[in-house]
Write the structure tokens for this entry.
Amino acid sequence: MFRSQTLTASVACLPAEAVAFIRDYRRLPDWLSFITGVSEEAGRWLMDTPGGTMEIEFVPANELGVVDHRVTLADGQTFDNPMRVVPNGAGSEVQFTLFQTPGMSDEQFATDAKTVQTDLNNLARLLSR
């Protein structure tokens, strides 16, 4: 089993609105700090990042708030990322579980966790307007 950490952000909008925003590939650069651009090519969504081009694909739309997604790095490695939006009163909680994969140092895991939390906070600011 891998070490994991679930990071969250409270969002002042209904879950359906949060899910729709998260699943909008064109909006990813608005809240993901490591993306400099996004494009669609032959039905595949590609993200431009400092580490090269990555592909992203969300699970099919659903009513449960599941926005899990698969990221394929430029070198072909794939990572499945669990992400959920759950109701919280008149708002939502966005949850992302980060895994420390083999070969990832504790320092890199901590850096990745900070990046994820920053991105979730960016998302919360955008959706809470």
Remarks:
- The chain has one domain: 3-127.
- Helices lie at 15-23, 28-31, 106-127.
